[in-house]
Amino acid sequence: MASSSSTTVPHAKKRTGYAIVEPAHMVRLNLSISFWSWQNLQDAFNSCVEQGVNRVIVSPLFLLPRRHWNQDIPSLTAAAAKEHPGVSYMVTAPLGLHPLLVANASSIDMQVHPNQYGDELGQYADIDPAA
Q: How far is residue 95's CA from residue 97's CA, in Å, rounded to a whole number?
């Protein structure tokens, strides 16, 4: 199975035009869970600087602004930046605040996870999990 970064990174590079894209998570340890092998934010920041950037843009993949976006990610990013004087950084807004996502939410083809057969209301009873 391909890691999510094997598809996420090329897609992000193509869509943003940035030559350097490093996927990361907030956990201080590096995770490798079968399909998900991303480095922590500190290591991703370091990798960007090692590749020659002078500004790091952190784009959290969250729908709404909550504690991780308001506190945790800015704090982790600031700590990572302290090791690299002269390198600036910014943390972008969550995806859910983007006007295009809001405007197009109803046209997004919502997929149901194959293991989700429905709730007690039988909401997904007509979905064939083998399809």
A: 5
